[in-house]
Amino acid sequence: MAGLATFGIGEMPGFSSIEMAAQAGLLAVQDAGLAINQVDAVFCCLPDDLFGGLTLAEYLGLHPRFTDSNRTGGSSFASHIITAAIMIEAGYIDNALIAYGSNQRSSGGRLATPAKSSVWEQPYKPIFPLSSYALAAARHMHQFGTTREQMASVAVAAREWANTNPEAFAKGPLSIEDCLASRMISSPISKADCCLVTDGAAAILLTSTERAKGGPRPAVPVLGAAAATWHNSISSMPDLTTTAAQESGARAMSAAGVTPGDFDTVQLYDAFTINTILFLEDLGFCAKGEGGPFVESGAIAPGGSLPVNTNGGGLSCCHPGMYGLFAIIEAARQIRGEAANHQEGAQLCLAHTNGGTLSSQATIILGSEATI
């Protein structure tokens, strides 16, 4: 990874999604020390345009060798990285631009997506996708004794990180009591358990490690990556307390030759507080069923043993419809030493992304040049 950028996090009225994605893309290319005409592959998933990759290429005046708009929800961008990395290694492309933009908040707060509950779930009138995550949370509580207080600990930790990140949208005090008193939306998930609704754009420029080493910013190699899908609709999820992150994480770590204990920071797709608990367990940072006590102990908060979502995550930094690329950029910023809440000496970081209703899971492992 040679370049990265974010743009318009929070509220950016007057900008369309494609305009935001293009701005982030231009900044990422500049960050890599390249000219826009050196980009020969475009990967772009937009919330309101099924042909986002084609639109972005046209908007930027590019004639790429390869364009992809693969949509797996918030995990799309990790999948784009996997595809681009393999193509770069094979010599098919040289410089891939991976971008996303959304004006979700300033355009009215509604997520523009064709996704919805399956025909088998619709008679029960679920809130999509929130009720699916509520179902997983309820099962985790029933099976392992997880509490709403423990889920609230995730939101409180995210806010503590956000309070010292100038880019974060939500700041200010947030207590366990505040979370428990927040409006219930789909039991047991309340407003405080839900991610933000913001505008925002992000982009990265992926190239070979050798080319990246010659750039103006430190290269951030992709050491390992993997994706896995076990279901689409939540009603087809084999086990509501275990996600395909168990598979994607294990394969990504095997490819990188690392274990959960090796990471300096962990960036997780926290669309809802239960996500963080599930992914900590499935990725091996604690045993299955122990995610609740783990987060309640303060382990993932500032000063804890495992810095998680150091930018504030989707719960307090930003969530413009899809958060995955922002988690990946925060991991890269930690390694570059550019993160607002930089963890001293960070050399190895994991970013895990999620799409659909705990459906598509993708794990990216980033390191410093010293880890190669």
Tell me what the structure shows:
GO terms for molecular function: acetyl-CoA C-acyltransferase activity. Residues 226-367 form the Thiolase C-terminal domain. This is Thiolase. It comes from Aurantiacibacter marinus. InterPro entries: Thiolase, Thiolase-like, Thiolase_C_2. There is one protein chain. The chain has one domain (3-109, 196-371): Thiolase/Chalcone synthase (Peroxisomal Thiolase, Chain A, domain 1), CATH 3.40.47. By secondary structure, the chain is of the alpha/beta class. It has a 5-stranded mixed sheet, with helices on both faces. It has helices at residues 17-31, 52-59, 76-90, 130-144, 148-162, 176-181, 209-213, 245-256, 273-282, 291-296, 313-316, 324-336; strands at residues 3-10, 41-44, 66-68, 96-102, 184-186, 189-190, 199-206, 222-229, 265-268, 348-355, 360-367. The two termini are 13 Å apart. α1 packs across α2 (52-59) and α5 (148-162) crosses α9 (273-282). Helix content is 33%, strand content 17%.
